[in-house]
Specification:
Strand content: 15-25%
Structural class: alpha/beta
Helix content: 25-40%
Number of helices: 11
Radius of gyration: 18 Å
Order of helices and strands: EEEHEHEHEHEHHEEHHEHEHH
Strand order of the largest sheet: 1-2-4-3-5-6-10-11
Distance between the termini: 18 Å
Length: 293
């Protein structure tokens, strides 16, 4: 899909479960004969990382959420992924819209699947890029003993920068950021920082928040039951398979789509876990083709 002119979304805040959830929207009105899209992002990222995808649907209303503790949304560390899924459900209850095309990436794909089962009718179809949904055996094992004294390693991330340009310069040649399309990478940096109280800029998704999400990534075993109950078409787009310790490899259980009554598996070994960032045009094409049926 050809890259369209860049456009700025409008942003509104929704009060859900005691926090402010930011929603970025492209197109002011719902309509135009195209099903509206709802995008949910990966851990540590934010909605504006998907601008290059949203802009490829100029005739559709596209909403992209900053999930709890990410982007412009408020909220702090979590200990269970149902907390963030419940935020999405509360947002859907406020919107009172149905027939959405849900587009989730990594954690966001997990959350949209859970929300689709919790709120039947909200979604017509789901496109799930590398959902963090593991094989059943991983949920049976005891969770790692992360604690305030022994937090997840993500807590050591650099959080403070003099400017977005410093962040861009620092990470441009480092993986995984060097894999991203340049526009996506710059969107990540420019919209992933917020002004710091004492000057400069700081990560909008704090290292504490990111670490808590990773540390609780196996908390929602019920997601496997949700997959079996999902009664809408769902496309699981899996990246290359390596190991769980390789952040570029797919965390998705290869058998996931087979457990869904109307699931379909699309294995893309030519892509990493960051597929929507590496090639937003390809991701948008996959979404458009599946959304059209």
């Amino acid at each position: 899909m050809t890259a369209p002119p860049q456009s700025e979304p409008t942003t509104r805040m929704a009060r859900v479960n005691g926090i402010e959830l930011a929603c970025h929207s492209w197109a002011e009105e719902v309509g135009g004969g195209h099903a509206p899209l709802l995008i949910a992002h990966a851990t540590g990222f934010h909605a504006r990382c998907y601008s290059a995808i949203a802009e490829r649907f100029p005739n559709a209303h596209v909403d992209a959420l900053d999930l709890r503790g990410h982007g412009r949304s408020s909220g702090g560390p979590i200990d269970h992924w149902r907390i963030m899924a419940d935020d999405v459900v509360a947002f859907l209850d406020q919107e009172q819209r149905g027939g959405l095309i849900g587009v989730g990436h990594s954690m966001g794909a997990h959350l949209l699947l859970q929300a689709a089962v919790d709120r039947p009718g909200a979604f017509a179809r789901l496109v799930l890029f590398d959902p963090v949904i593991l094989a059943p055996v991983f949920y049976e094992a005891e969770l790692p003993g992360f604690s305030p004294d022994q937090p997840h390693p993500a807590i050591r991330r650099k959080r403070d920068f003099a400017s977005p340009e410093e962040m861009i310069e620092r990470f441009a040649d480092r993986e995984p950021y060097s894999l991203f399309e340049r526009r996506v990478f710059e969107d990540y940096c420019r919209h992933g920082l917020e002004p710091a109280a004492d000057g400069g800029w700081t990560l909008a998704c704090s290292p504490e928040m990111e670490a808590s999400v990773y540390a609780s990534s196996r908390s929602n075993r019920a997601i496997l039951d949700a997959a079996e109950k999902l009664d809408i078409p769902a496309l699981v787009v899996r990246a290359k398979t390596t190991s769980l310790k390789d952040f570029k490899g797919s965390p998705t259980w290869p058998g996931l789509a087979d457990t869904m009554p109307r699931g379909r598996d699309l294995h893309r070994p030519d892509r990493t876990h960051f597929h929507p960032f590496e090639d937003p045009a390809d991701a948008a094409r996959i979404i458009a083709e599946f959304a059209s049926g």
